[in-house]
């Protein structure tokens, strides 16, 4: 079974760039060629941030477009999320999930604070 694992800094200062990595492991890692990034702010619901398709095309939430980018390192079986100019409102648990949302990482909490 494919597994996803998010990693990155737990604390980021306002105005900085948040960078998170989703590592694909176990099973058929090459089968995971499309990733969603989803986040959940404290006390709120899940918020879809964007997706990188197998074609390499990327799709982002309108409100985050311009601040968000999702890239892939095929050799490392990793997908990276970058979110620029963060503010405390970007504090959330961040998840990566496979194309049909059938596999999720455990999530990683990122706090934006000075």
Task: Tell me about this structure.
- With 114 residues, this protein is an all-beta fold.
- The protein has no helices and 10 strands.
- The strands form 2 sheets. Strands 2-10-9-4-5-6 form a 6-stranded mixed β-sheet, with no helix packed on it. The protein has a 4-stranded antiparallel β-sheet with strand order 1-3-8-7, with no helix packed on it.
- The termini are far apart.
In short:
With 114 residues, the chain is mainly β. The protein is built from no helices and ten strands.
Largest sheet: 6 strands, mixed
Mean residue pLDDT: 94
Q: Which radius of gyration do the C-alpha atoms yield? A: 13 Å
Straight-line N-to-C gap? 39 Å
Structural class: mainly beta
* Amount of beta strand: over 45%
As residue ranges, the low-confidence spans are: none
Question: Percent helix among the residues?
Answer: under 10%
Label the overall shape: globular
Number of helices: 0
Strand line-up in the sheet with most strands:
2-10-9-4-5-6
* E-strand count: 10
Order of helices and strands: EEEEEEEEEE
Output the keywords:
114 residues, single chain, 6-stranded mixed β-sheet
Explain the layout of strands and helices.
Blueprint (H helix, E strand, L loop, with lengths): L2 E5 L3 E2 L5 E8 L9 E6 L6 E6 L5 E3 L7 E6 L4 E6 L8 E7 L9 E5 L2
């Amino acid at each position: 079974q494919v597994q996803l694992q998010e990693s990155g800094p737990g604390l980021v200062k306002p105005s900085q760039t948040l960078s998170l990595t989703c590592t694909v492991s176990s099973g058929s890692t090459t089968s995971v060629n499309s990733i969603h990034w989803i986040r959940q702010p404290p006390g709120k619901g899940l918020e879809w941030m964007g997706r990188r398709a197998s074609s390499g095309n990327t799709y982002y939430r309108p409100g985050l477009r311009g601040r968000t980018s999702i890239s892939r390192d095929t050799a490392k079986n990793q997908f990276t999320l970058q979110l620029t100019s963060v503010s405390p409102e970007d504090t959330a648990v961040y998840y990566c999930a496979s194309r049909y949302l059938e596999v999720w990482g455990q999530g990683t909490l990122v706090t934006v604070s000075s």
